[in-house]
Specification:
single chain, 4-stranded antiparallel beta sheet, elongated, binds adenosine-5'-diphosphate, ABC-type transporter activity, transmembrane helix
């Protein structure tokens, strides 16, 4: 539920005012004419809709009881036939015409309102998505995927629900207004007396909404809790089962469900009270109206109620009064409810729409002449973190060289490469490409020249061909195959039943981790970037694949500057330079041989990796012991999983 997420994270800026009004102003105005037709049509349709009750009352008096002449408000007497047969035919004609006109107007209004509403929502949805994907990475770091998705899913459909209900609300209000206008033409004082009904129901509704509001919040909260509980249990089902903890999960779900049940009961109880009291008001008004009407009809009106009342007029009044109850109740229950929802949702939508976004186009065009990358005394801390993740990072990647970045998990290796792409910006110092500070470059031009294969490459739902071709507009098959060969993916792809047309499943789940990475490398290479960044690109692959990729990297690196975050030190053994990062600082750099000779952190990591644990320095061992899980670290390091 949208409400279960943290709404304070989505505050609409102050200048916006009421966010719902803001959205309506901005997104409904292109369809002004349609909305106008819808509103006028809906309101006008209420006139013919109220006519039958009026006509039936008049016909009853004039034709069946012969107690009064046939006369209708707003209709000149000359138009009305004088014979009984004529009046019967006139009545039938009038009823049929009223129904037909009502039908036509309602249909038109419904159609126009429907299309206008859908177009408005479409615009809001697309703009909101556009604003979302345009946000800087920090925005996504601070939020859960489900939370961000709920802005697009729940919040936009809440607006839809409100749009629907707003039309209903308008219908109810005009329906009541038209009925009162007609009643006032027949018997103004009795109509005034009957105002008790909408006013009384309105007051009840107000009482109900103020009481139910806080309880609703509680219910939504517990719905959120149940969902989170269920998601956790089902997502972690393998773990649940492996520990045979199904009972515990059941108990936890039962607790959440019990809380939901109790809170929901409070809502149902309030709703029942409201339903029954409004039903009573309506029913007793009906009885009261009949009693007063019959009394006036039989005995003449007391002075305060003015003139007498015919049986037909009483019937018309009774029919109208009965038709108020449902709509007013619904107005109170549904329309107000959906207004509250829509208000909360529009706040979140406006917060996304109206805040600064990182413009892909602003900034200079990057001009890659040689491909020299330089990090110059870079300090950086994530906004969402209190700590500084990089301190005084300096190194240079010469044109066409391969630079390996190694170090323990969490040292800041990925962060270093993210600054190159301007996913984040350095707090101090500069990252430059051929002397151009990346923070001056437009994100789009940076990303056109730089290829990136992330730690956990994302494959989109679709075929392998589509996934490799993702980065360019109309890739031809030869280009795709060429890129796949370079990435060492061609062989396994052609071995699959459908080759390049194999569906990869959601997030590429039908492929192994190594296969996914090779496809991601092919995707990056297809753009022929001048600079390539591989982030732990070889962490998931077997030795044979690793060798293939390493060959590819070696082959590629000659042509383009490559930064490779290495998981296994052997991958970057041949690198021109290896930058060793520890706790956000560059602690050593040089070639493999130079670093071994230095006998520092790299040398220790290398010894662990090749299984020469006896030779590991005492300092390294002490440090490993000081970490949270020393033995695991060492063991995994021995397995060749140094930095995990
Ligand atoms: P490495 O790639 O060396 O494993 P990272 O660059 O991923 O390390 O992370 C460096 C540090 O920054 C870690 O302490 C990590 O927890 C933190 N970090 C990484 N990404 C974010 C983020 N988006 N927001 C806040 N902290 C982060």
């Amino acid at each position: 539920m949208s409400e279960s997420s943290d709404t304070t994270e989505y505050e609409a800026p102050d200048h916006v005012g009421n966010p719902l009004v803001h959205l309506v102003r901005r997104y409904a105005s292109p369809y002004k004419a349609r909305y106008l037709v819808a509103v006028v049509g809906t309101a006008l349709a209420q006139v013919p809709q109220r006519v039958p009750a009026l006509v039936v009352g008049v016909a009853l008096d004039a034709i069946l009881l012969s107690s009064a002449s046939y006369s209708l408000p707003l209709v000149p007497d000359g138009v009305i036939p004088t014979t009984t047969e004529g009046q019967v035919a006139f009545t039938i004609g009038l009823l049929a015409a009223a129904f037909a006109l009502d039908g036509a107007l309602s249909w038109l209004a419904g159609r126009v309102a429907g299309t206008a509403r859908l177009r408005t929502l479409h615009d809001i949805r697309v703009d909101t998505f556009d604003a979302l994907v345009g946000r800087e990475m920090d925005f996504f770091d601070r939020r859960q995927t489900g939370d961000v998705m709920s802005v697009l899913n729940n919040d936009v459909s809440n607006l839809n629900g409100f749009g629907n209900n707003a039309v209903q609300g308008l219908r109810f209000v005009t329906q009541i207004a038209v009925a009162f206008a007609f009643m006032a033409m027949l018997h103004v004082r009795l109509a005034a007396l009957l105002l008790v009904l909408p006013v009384g129901l309105g007051l009840l509704g107000r009482w109900y909404t103020t009481r139910v509001e806080p309880v609703y919040e509680d219910v939504r909260e517990s719905v959120g809790r149940i969902n989170a509980r269920l998601e956790d249990s089902i997502d972690g089902i393998a773990t649940v089962k492996s520990f045979a903890r199904e009972d515990r999960e059941r108990d936890a779900v039962a607790d959440a469900s019990r809380e939901y049940r109790d809170r929901n009961w409070s809502v149902i109880r309030l709703r029942l009270i409201f339903n029954y009291s409004s039903w009573s008001v309506s029913s007793f008004s009906f009885v009261g109206l009949f009693a007063v009407g019959a009394y006036i009809n039989l005995n003449g009106a007391p002075p305060v109620l003015g003139h007498s009342l015919t049986a037909g007029t009483l019937l018309t009044f009774l029919l109208y009064s009965k038709s108020f109850y449902g709509p007013i109740r619904q107005l109170m229950l549904d329309v107000l409810d959906s207004y509250e929802n829509a208000l909360a949702s529009s706040k979140r939508i406006v917060a996304v729409l109206e805040t600064d976004r990182q413009a892909n186009e602003t900034g200079d065009e990057l001009d890659v002449r040689e491909g020299r990358i330089e990090y110059d005394r870079v300090d950086f801390g994530y906004e969402s973190s209190d700590e500084q993740q990089l301190t005084d990072v300096s190194f240079t990647a010469e044109p066409g060289s391969l630079v390996g970045i190694v170090g323990p998990t969490g040292a800041g290796k990925s962060t270093i490469t993210k600054l190159l792409f301007r996913f984040y910006e350095a707090d101090e110092g500069a990252v430059t490409v051929d002397g151009q500070d990346v923070t001056d470059m437009s994100p789009r031009s940076l990303r056109e020249h730089l290829g990136y294969v992330s730690q956990d490459p994302f494959l989109f739902y679709g075929t392998i061909r589509q996934n490799i071709g993702y980065a360019v507009d109309d890739p031809d098959d030869d280009e795709i195959e060429h890129a796949a060969r370079l990435a060492g993916a061609h062989e396994f792809v052609t071995g699959l039943d459908d080759g390049y047309d194999t569906q990869v499943g959601e997030r590429g789940e039908s492929l192994s981790g190594g296969q996914r990475q090779r496809i991601a490398i092919a995707r990056a290479l297809l753009r022929e970037p001048e600079i390539l960044v591989l982030d732990e690109a070889t962490s998931h692959v077997d030795n044979e694949t690793e060798r293939q990729i390493q060959e590819s990297i070696d082959a590629l690196a000659g042509e383009r500057t490559t930064l490779a975050i290495a998981h296994r030190l052997s991958t970057v053994r041949n690198a021109d330079r290896i930058v060793v990062v520890d706790d956000g600082r560059v602690v050593e750099q040089g070639s493999h041989e130079e670093l071994l000779e230095r006998d520092g952190l790299y040398a220790d990591l290398w010894r662990v990796q090749v299984g020469d644990t006896d030779a590991v320095s005492e300092a390294f061992l002490q440090r490993a012991r000081a970490e949270d899980r020393p033995s695991e670290r060492i063991e995994s390091a021995v397995d060749g999983e140094v930095s995990r």
